[in-house]
Amino acid sequence: QVSVVYLVRCDLSRESVRFAREWPWMVAATIALPKLRNLLAPLLARAHCASPGEEKLRLNGAALAKSASVKTLEGRKAAEGEIFLMSPFQEVLNALTMLPTACMSWHAIFHSDSGPGVELIAFGILIHFPFSFGYHVACAILHGRRHPVEGNIALRLDLVFIHVAATFMAYGTSGSRTWFLLVALFNATCSYRTALWRGCLAERRTCRAICALAYITPILATDIAVFLWALVSFVAVAVPFSANRQLSGWGHAISHVMLVSLASALFVAASKTW
């Protein structure tokens, strides 16, 4: 019996020593793990593909719907990415900055002796213009009353007709019916998925970048200098658009202004192709 008691006491003594050594780490882990999880949660969320309800900004729609105190979308930022919500004035500016390329295209078709390639480029720009202009005007008028992304038919039409316009522009810069049919097939697929609001933000942006490269790449066979001009202009359009939050909502209008340079390069390329 003495031996058993002695062994139990020794065992308890060893457990006490081990607990005394390990309890600070146990307490530290208990405190640190929840904080570490909170820090990593946004990074893990960004690693996944954006939800289908995202395009030009990301809103926490569920939280917005549940919050009875929220009466307007203005001034709110998304929980993920903090995408800046543009003001009504900025949306009006987004619409007005689409006018220069539309005026250039109108002049190219109706007031100049441009060839069929230039007219195809101009037609593509003009067919997209009313949908982009109308979407931004609607966002300005209905600011805070209609979600700019969720269930917004005007946005879907804007994005769909980017692909429609790109199809004609690819024909204008390439002069190839085969290339036109291939690009038309790709853009038809993208338009279908956009109209049904399938896929994610990354997919839609990638598809628009590909459709832009589809009308820029053929210029390489015509004039390398004009190709570089068009490529640099496209980058100048894409960068401020992607950095709209960092530019406090002004990046969208800046990207529209840079479309003038891109359209000019496409006009020159089409005139040399046809």
Which key terms come to mind for this protein?
mainly alpha, 274 residues, 10 helices, 72% helix
What does this structure look like?
The structure is a single chain. With 274 residues, the protein is mainly alpha-helical. The chain has helices spanning 2-47, 61-66, 88-96, 99-110, 116-141, 153-174, 177-195, 201-216, 224-242, 251-273. The radius of gyration is 28 Å and the shape is globular. Mean pLDDT is 81; it is low at 4-8 and 50-84.
In short:
With 274 residues, this protein is mainly alpha-helical. It contains ten helices and no strands.
* Biggest beta sheet attributes: none
Strand content: under 5%
The structural class is: mainly alpha
- The proportion of residues forming helix, as a percent range, comes to over 70%
Strand/helix succession:
HHHHHHHHHH
Can you tell me the overall shape?
Answer: globular
